[in-house]
UniProtKB/TrEMBL annotation:
Protein source organism: Gossypium davidsonii
InterPro entries named in the record: Cu-oxidase-like_N, Cu-oxidase_2nd, Cu-oxidase_C, Cu-oxidase_fam, Cu_oxidase_CS, Cu_oxidase_Cu_BS, Cupredoxin, CuRO_1_LCC
Residues spanning the signal sequence: 1-22
TM ranges: none
Record protein name field: Laccase
């Protein structure tokens, strides 16, 4: 009896340890060409496993994930696991020339990381040039076994990825733009799960349809994978309850319209109407745009279709009223700031908001556009037809090195980058007032070095140079707390008095408001080299990007792991 009891205890302990440790999940991502037709244009698209959008990566909190990426195309490629903390595994983060050299044609690389303390919706995408326009897919992190959501279990879960479609090759578009100095051509359509929908020419068949039943609750995992556009999203005649942003649970709030920036995810609960409504409802996404250039001013539409109680009567759905949602105006900055201000961390005992209450280091970064002079004996198509568009942080336009910064840091190759990134603007000016006459940026590969576990406060200030504009900033390797935001120039004396240090939203991507500022805080508790950049890829290409280097801590789990043996070489 005693022996069998001990055996039983052993199995229970083993089960408990398995649950606590998580599983190891293996994936294989083949990056390959795939012909896709949209808007009557057939194009060879770069994809993972010939899927557009790409395959789901599903895991539980605590799981180890191993993804072998094999490059079957001519372009160099890397994959970024957007929002995954990558604690001590910076070699698997993915931004090209920051944490790794790219995977070259016919080569492979194994990304190996553990999902620690995270659950919810994130996503993966290519992180070199503009390849992420078609190389992207969802990451779904389920709670640990026997854990539940902090809201009622939905009847069904659905992933909705918003994206962009170009009729021509996006790599040719950005290559030409960087050569001429002009703004790049814009996309030809927005997409919902890869489909533009019926408002575009030659597109009525390419429409995403979500079939629902009356009286049910659906968890919609919304992801903005668009290349260059923040997007409004709404479902006609329906409200949704926001419960999560960037894989962080929120205090629930109800809305009928959402704003999602590129890089962000938002989980919402959709409660369908109690009875068949005799109508079909459109879901729509269109851009929020505050800049001065051209943009894709179009709308992608999908269909929310209720299952008819009499399944055999298919004709009825053809004659149903179609109801369209009302989206905010294109430049609705008031709505944008009001909406993002509704996000609050749960901030309870189980899901605390561990925001730094005191700060070791303060940084003030201007973010915005600028110019580079036209090279001698060439003509340029940028501002005044005499310069090239550029973008910068504290007037430093970041130049990608030719070997990865993390590699250079780890092996002590100090000539690859400098550690003199300015902690504040070198020449202060009226950031949101009349722009200075000289709009030229400095170019360089500069980083900020932080000792382990430094508590950081960073204020990012938009500028009016070449037009005030909203900039969604993404920080790799970290979540941060959004403690404040406002319009105009940041006031270091008055504005901190209004900071929320109780339940601020925790995210990995946040917008600097057009003509305003945002303040974030985080603990630098993850050693490595971490990219921070605007998630509008045109601005990243122009140089609105920089790198934080976080030093090792004293403990064994506070050190960057050694590089893997298959790390790609430049």
């Amino acid at each position: 009896m005693a022996a069998s009891h001990m055996l039983f205890c052993f199995w229970v302990l083993l089960l408990f340890m398995n649950n606590a440790a998580g599983e190891t999940r293996h994936y294989k991502f083949n990056v390959e060409y795939h012909n896709v037709t949209r808007l009557c244009h057939t194009r060879t698209v770069l994809t993972v496993n010939r899927k557009f959008p790409g395959p789901r990566l599903v895991a539980r909190e605590g799981d180890r994930v191993i993804v072998k990426v094999v490059n079957h195309i001519a372009n160099n490629v890397t994959i970024h696991w957007h929002g995954i903390r990558q604690l001590t595994t910076g070699w698997s983060d993915g931004p090209s020339y920051i944490t790794q050299c790219p995977i070259q044609a016919n080569q492979s690389y194994i990304y190996n990381f553990t999902i620690t303390g995270q659950r919810g919706t994130l996503w993966w995408h290519a992180h070199i040039s503009w390849l992420r326009v078609s190389i992207y897919g969802p990451i779904i992190i389920l709670p640990k076994r026997n854990e539940s959501y902090p809201f009622a279990k939905p009847d069904k879960e659905v992933t909705i990825m918003l994206g962009e479609w170009f009729n021509s090759d996006p790599e040719a578009i950005i290559s030409q733009a960087l050569q001429t100095g002009a703004g790049p051509n814009v996309s030809d359509a927005y997409t919902i799960n890869g489909y533009p929908g019926p408002l575009y020419n030659c597109s009525s068949k390419d429409t995403y349809k979500l079939k629902v039943k009356p009286g049910k609750t659906y968890l919609l995992r919304l992801i903005n994978a668009a290349l260059n556009d923040e997007l409004f999203f709404s479902i006609a005649n329906h409200t949704v309850t926001v419960v999560e942003g960037d894989a962080v649970y929120t205090k629930p709030f109800v809305t009928d319209k959402l704003l999602i920036t590129p890089g962000q995810t938002t989980n919402v609960l959709l409660k369908t109407k109690p009875e068949f409504p005799n109508a079909t409802f459109l879901m729509a996404a269109r851009p929020y745009f505050t800049g001065q250039g051209t943009f894709d001013n179009s709308t992608t539409v999908g269909i929310l279709e209720y299952e008819h109680p009499s399944h055999h009567n298919h004709q009825s759905s053809k004659n149903l009223t179609i109801i369209q949602p009302v989206l905010p105006p294109i430049n609705a900055t008031g709505f944008a700031v009001n909406f993002t201000g509704k996000f609050r961390s749960l901030g309870n005992a189980k899901y605390p908001a561990n925001v730094p209450k005191t700060v070791d280091k303060k940084f003030f970064f201007t973010v915005g556009l600028g110019t580079n002079p036209c090279p001698k004996n060439t003509t340029c198509q940028g501002p005044n037809n005499s310069s090239k568009f550029a973008a910068s942080v504290n007037n430093v336009s970041f130049q990608l090195p030719t070997i990865a910064i993390l590699q250079a840091y780890y092996f002590g190759q100090n000539e690859v980058y400098t550690t003199d990134f300015p902690t504040q603007p070198l020449i202060p000016f009226n950031y949101t007032g009349t722009a200075p006459n000289n709009t030229n940026v400095m170019n360089g590969t500069r980083a900020v070095v932080l000792p382990f576990n430094t508590s950081v406060e960073l204020v990012m200030q938009d500028t009016s140079i070449l037009g005030a504009e909203s900039h969604p900033l993404h920080l790799h390797g970290y979540n941060f707390f959004i403690v404040g935001k406002g319009f105009g120039n940041y006031d270091p004396n008055k504005d901190p008095l209004k900071f929320n240090l109780v339940d601020p939203m925790e995210r990995n991507t946040a917008s600097v408001p057009a003509g305003g500022w945002v303040a974030i805080r985080f603990f630098a508790d993850n050693p490595g080299a971490w990219f921070m950049h605007c998630h509008l890829d045109v601005h990243t290409s122009w140089g609105l990007r920089m790198t934080w280097i976080v030093l090792d801590g004293p403990g064994p789990n506070q050190k960057l792991q050694p590089p893997p043996s298959d790390l790609p070489q430049c």
